[in-house]
Sequence to fold (395 residues):
Amino acid sequence: MSIIKIPQILLPAEDVDMSKWAVNACDQYTSDVGYWQDVERIVRGCPSAFNLIFPEVYLKDRPEERIARINSTMREYLSGGIFTMTEGIILVERTTLSGTRHGIVIAVDLEQYSYNPQDKSSIRSTEATILQRIPPRVEIRKNAPLELPHVMLLYDDRQNFVINCIKRGKVLYDFALMKDGGKIKGTLIENADEVVSALNKLAETNNYGTCDKLLFAVGDGNHSLATAKTCWENLKPSLSEEEKEAHPARFALVEVVNLYDGALNFEPIHRFVKTDKVEKFISGLKTSGNGCAYIVVGGVKTKIPFDADVPEGIRRLDTYISEFCAEHGAEVDYIHGENELINLTFDGVGIVLPKIDKGDFFGLISRGGNLPKKTFSMGEGNEKRYYIEARKVTK
Fold:
């Protein structure tokens, strides 16, 4: 079966206020409950994707009640005329301070995805998957009739062949996103089969020195994709061979983006350690190298040396943080955006990390070199994928 499937996509009906419908990815602002409280205030009383997702800042706050409410709202929206159906793939143009990023919304076959770095699958994780993060997300997804994607996959197209072959059709949405998310425009692609063929061809023409058929590497949302994969694996034993071929849960809706898109910036994901033993943390932290990072305490940045091999430096840093947290009862969080990190550092210590070089990105993944968890982010928090499209995952 093909890696890519042309999906049936659910979009909000014309009378839905899109600026209140679209909200940021659930794994953003995980230490900033005020952000999500503000979103809730903005959308109150209106149809919104906010009512269909589980912001991870609330994962420990009566999750069973929230999951039940989400599933109920999904069924209500499906039966209440909130959605219209579009079959095809969508060109997404997202404009932020970084420029205009171009993505394509497609469905991918979960049989072709693996988060095991030793597997030579066509769709691969780019960083270590934290297995303990999957079960609570399975609880959210397993009975949900809909999926809304914040997963972004990267493809390696230095010459921009895929985007250049697109024939634009009907504009499906065009509006400003809330909370400084910029603007977004979605256009139906008229020559979907040609675009899918161009994407598939990349797996044949790109050569990473290993005769590898790698096509997509996960840029954002690996744990969400891993959750979809787990739910599919749990469902498969109950299906006939014929049902397995076409069941909607076999596929996941994603946005794919060219690694070399001019508006796609790789940003570091910083570390925040919540602790009242800041001096002890700093005294035990040993870093070295020709690169640099910064320690932040009380909003004040102090430069420290760091390994020029950024992933290796992060591995050593994470080992120290893990040991410190275990010994002193501290907590670690992974923060998108330097300003967000600095604002937290009155309750602990932050480490501002350097960027990684994306030039050898696919070669590294092809060689089985998963990066440390939370090594990079594609853009700042407000540039993440907002939920707009949906797809049914139940019969």
The CA atoms of residues 14 and 338 lie 38 Å apart. The chain has twelve helices and 20 strands.
